[in-house]
Design goal:
CATH architecture of the largest domain: 7 Propeller
Distance between the termini: 106 Å
Largest sheet: 5 strands, antiparallel
CATH class of the largest domain: Mainly Beta
CATH topology of the largest domain: Methylamine Dehydrogenase, Chain H
Number of strands: 32
CATH superfamily of the largest domain: YVTN repeat-like/Quinoprotein amine dehydrogenase
Strand order of the largest sheet: 1-3-4-5-6
Length: about 575
């Protein structure tokens, strides 16, 4: 073939390649345009329609406030809310996938368009004759305008696809939102696992398990020995260090000694015993209970209630569910936990799940049980050692996560499936882990004495933002707002850190140590020392003590704060504090 024929062949091949590249550019550009429109339309729809604040759900919530004892309505709200939330987050996941596809489509479009232009410049094709009123300069300007508009559209869609959904679209609205501290937003993008009435404190450290009340109404001052603002006190038959849980007119505790393990129900208004249930004849339970330290006992874990049943677990490995009238719904044996002190991890709630952190010397497990029957929904093994911490279930933005503190890992699990979402080695193999995690403003706070307190941004991958090594608690759990992280240790030191940086804000030394965990109510923090004195101070950049209230009994539990009252367990009595 002669040279002119070669040039002709190359020119024809280049023309075919240029047309193919142009076709790819058109196809990818059209695909990107459709994705842009869908992403922007979805963002507008979510913002305007607010799927998690549906009018039907809002109407049901209003009806529940008028009829708080309507169990059927409460169940409908839980089901509707959970389905709406799953649909919403599935939609958001699809949008993020769309954003990645948009990036790919734009990349293909740019590469194909550049290839087509390069081939045409090297091997010019016959120019198209301008039509009436057309000019090459006009076409060039139109292309520039179209290109700029398309780029702006793609950039807008890409940004919207990568943004997290607005925080107000994630709020549940069934329970009240936490009262924000002065000059700040709510201490947590609060997302209680279940609709919780304001006169309830359903699990260890409150509705979300993170030590934050959903109201700002709690007594400021009382005096146990003098009876000031003590509505009633009643003896508790058997000792224990677990905390009260409350559901409207009922207060629940557990107690134990080597002879028996029991669950107690008291009338919330009078303190009169409503019923008493001995946990025995559990299939598989050993005839002799395991050895535990006397200070821990067999009933260290705090019970939990969903308003239909109360759940309790003991150091024997027995777990029981009782109806609200005290009759047994189910009971089972999880295997005697081999721990040097005894089992102390409390129960946590999520719709359709009762979560049990069961970390022993034989290895760790996180179980989800069906609340109605006690059957295992899933059982997730964990590469951790013994722990006495309690899970918290929080809304991290795109999803709900069950977060567990243990040795050596801080882990997050999907509370629906048990799947491990992320983990980070933040404690090493030193120390014994009893404090539960804190959570606020998208940050997890977890640590233990003699190791460190760490602030971790959830993953994947998780990121340690800072570490702090002084005055870390060995039992008491931290609490946080968007600005501050507060902890109290068994040496009697309360420390306030900057939540974002971990730098000390203030440090207060007191005479007695703390086993009780601090609780935020409005703009105040309540924390009770081992002698039973509750310190109330303002959330602020300095220690501003508002009250110092003596109970008259030793205390190792964390108080319950349903609206307007405080229920506090002393060494021998249960106290109701109010006006």
């Amino acid at each position: 073939m002669n040279e002119p024929d070669n040039r002709k062949y190359r020119s024809e091949a280049a023309a075919v390649a240029a047309r193919a590249a142009a076709a790819a550019a058109w196809a990818s550009g059209l695909f990107a345009l459709v994705l842009c429109v869908l992403i922007i339309a979805n963002h507008v729809q979510v913002t305007v329609a607010a799927p998690l604040k549906d009018e039907s759900l809002a109407a049901m919530r209003k009806a529940l406030r008028d009829a708080p004892d309507n169990a059927e309505l409460r169940d409908r709200i839980r089901t509707y809310d959970l389905l709406a939330r799953r649909a919403f987050f599935t939609s958001q996941s699809q949008v993020k996938t769309g954003g990645l596809l948009l990036l790919a489509a734009v990349a293909v479009f740019l590469a194909a368009a550049k290839t087509a232009l390069e081939l045409r410049r090297r091997h010019p094709l016959p120019a198209k004759c301008p039509g009436p009123g057309e000019s090459p300069a006009g076409r060039s300007a139109a292309r520039r305008i179209a290109g700029a508009g398309g780029g702006a559209l793609a950039a807008t869609a890409l940004v919207l696809s990568l943004l997290s959904p607005p925080a107000d679209l994630l709020s549940r609205g069934v329970a009240e939102s936490p009262t924000p501290p002065p000059g700040g937003k709510p201490p947590d993008p609060f997302c209680a696992p279940d609709p919780v009435p304001p006169h309830a404190w359903p699990q260890f450290r409150g509705p979300a398990g993170n030590g934050i009340a959903v109201h700002a109404d709690a007594p400021l001052r009382w005096d146990g020995p003098k009876g000031e603002n003590i509505l009633w006190k009643t003896p508790v038959p058997r000792p224990a260090s677990n905390s009260p849980v409350v559901w409207e007119k009922r207060v629940f505790l557990t107690g134990s000694d080597p002879a028996a393990r029991e669950v107690y129900c008291f009338d919330a208004d009078t303190g009169a015993p409503a019923w008493r249930h001995e946990v025995k004849d559990v299939p598989g339970s050993p005839a002799e209970p395991p050895e535990v330290m006397e200070t821990t006992g067999y009933a260290a874990p705090t019970a939990a209630t969903d308003g239909k049943r109360v759940f309790a677990i003991f150091a024997t490995g027995d777990i029981v569910a009782l109806q609200m009238d005290g009759t047994r719904a189910w009971a089972r044996h999880l295997g005697a936990p081999k721990n040097p002190y005894g089992h102390a991890s409390s129960l946590a709630l999520f719709p359709g799940r009762l979560l049990v952190q069961y970390d022993t010397e034989k290895g760790g497990r996180l179980l989800a049980l069906e609340p109605q029957t006690g059957k295992t929904v899933w059982d997730q093994s964990r590469a951790v050692k013994v722990s006495w911490a309690t899970p918290i279930v929080v809304n991290t933005g795109p999803r709900m996560e069950a977060i567990l503190n243990s040795k050596p890992l801080l882990t997050s699990h999907d509370p629906v499936t048990g799947k491990l979402l992320w983990s980070i080695n933040h404690l090493g193999n030193d120390g014994e882990v009893a404090p539960s995690p804190g959570y606020a403003n998208g940050i997890v706070f977890a640590g233990t004495e003699n190791v460190t307190m760490a602030a971790v941004r959830p993953g994947p991958p998780p990121q340690i933002l800072w570490k702090y090594e002084d005055d870390i608690p060995d039992v008491s759990s931290p609490v946080a707002t968007d600005k501050y992280m507060i902890m109290a240790n068994s040496g009697g030191v309360i420390t306030c850190l900057d939540a974002a940086t971990g730098k000390p804000v203030w440090r207060q030394e007191l005479k007695e140590g703390f086993y009780s965990s601090p609780v935020i109510v409005g703009d105040r923090v309540y924390v009770t020392d081992k002698k039973g004195v509750t310190f109330v101070f303002r959330i602020s950049d300095r220690y501003e003590e508002l009250a110092r209230n003596a109970l008259g009994e030793k205390v190792s539990c964390t108080p319950a704060f349903p609206r307007g009252r405080i229920y506090l367990r002393g060494e021998k009595h249960l106290f109701c504090i109010g006006k």
